[in-house]
C-alpha cells in the first residue's frame, strides 16, 4: 500500500470515486472504493459482506444506489 504520495505544487490531483470495471466481481463498487482509498480489495469486500449481515437493508440499499450512481472508471 502507498502511505505517502508526493505531488508537485503545480500538479492538480483529480481523484474521483468510480466503479472499477477491471477488478469487479458484481458491479465494481467495492473494487472502486478499494482503489479510491488504496485499500486491499478483499478487505473492502469482506467489510461489505459483514455489513450486509449486520445491517442488511441499509447495506443493500447503499450498494444498489452506489452501483447506479457511481460512474464507470475511465482509467482502463
Structural class by helix and strand composition = mainly alpha
The end-to-end span amounts to: 20 Å
Order of helices and strands: HHH
- Overall pLDDT: 85
Number of domains: 1
Number of beta-strand segments = 0
Strand content: under 5%
Count of helical regions: 3
Largest sheet features: none
Helix content: 40-55%
Assembly of the depicted chains: single chain
Residue ranges: pLDDT <50 for 5 or more in a row?
none
Q: Given the C-alpha coordinates, what overall shape results?
A: globular
Task: Put the structure in a nutshell.
By secondary structure, the chain is mainly alpha-helical.
Structure commentary:
The chain is an all-alpha fold and 76 residues long. The chain has one domain (17-76). It has 3 helices and no strands. It has helices at residues 29-37, 41-54, 56-69. Helix 1 packs across helix 2 (41-54) and helix 2 packs across helix 3 (56-69). The chain is globular. 13% of the residues are buried. The mean pLDDT is 85.
Amino acid at each position: 500500500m502507498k502511505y505517502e504520495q508526493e505531488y508537485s505544487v503545480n500538479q492538480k490531483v483529480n481523484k474521483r470515486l468510480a466503479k472499477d470495471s477491471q477488478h469487479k466481481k458484481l458491479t465494481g463498487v467495492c473494487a472502486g472504493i478499494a482503489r479510491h482509498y488504496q485499500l486491499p480489495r478483499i478487505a473492502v469486500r469482506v467489510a461489505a459482506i459483514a455489513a450486509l449481515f449486520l445491517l442488511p437493508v441499509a447495506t443493500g440499499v447503499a450498494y444498489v444506489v452506489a452501483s447506479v450512481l457511481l460512474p464507470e472508471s475511465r482509467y482502463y
